[in-house]
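sorry to bug you again but im stuck and you know this stuff better than me. what follows is a protein written twice so to speak, once as letters and once as structure tokens for the fold. mainly i need to know what kind of three dimensional shape the backbone takes. anything you notice is useful, everything is just below:
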Amino acid sequence: MLTKAEKTTQFILEKVGSYFNKHGYTGTSMSAITEATGLTKGAIYGNFKDKEDLALQAFNYNIRRAMAILADKMTMDADGLTRLKEITRFFRKYYAAEKLHGGCPMINVGIDSLNHNHTLYKRVVEVMNKLINNIANIIEEAKKEGTIKPEIDSAKYANKIYAQIQGGIFITSMLKDESHLSEMMAHIDQMIDSEMIK
């Protein structure tokens, strides 16, 4: 059961999460936040230290929302190869789902914070590294199960997979055409089948 303060925090994040994702840290004013929430500046600062804290928590909220299904797929009770293929299946539908919330939070916040906000940038890098490590761990499990070649460098292939995913998302977002992301996921599946499977 959430406390009143926790409910208010959740309400604020739900209202401003997409706004921060669309407009970035510098493009989101306190007046926009108060307008989106219907709360006063004092009420907002009663739940967050400052604008940077709110932006950081909004990013965390957006990532949890965007990646909840993927997290379930990556930890589902199935063999490693199946879970690896679930990643590309998830990202085939990612653009359509995330454009309703302003696009991919990793790309939006990563680029926005790169030269403007070290705290946000550091958090994006942490999340990125966690996703890459999770993919590498799945590849390692598939190697132990005997479906992936033992000589495959799990970390290197996890990086390749993630780089292609983010590249596909970026091109799709810029051109507003999800066929690019779909084609990139097919390319990753082909790489898994032709290069990685034993």
Summary: Residues 1 and 190 are 46 Å apart (CA to CA).
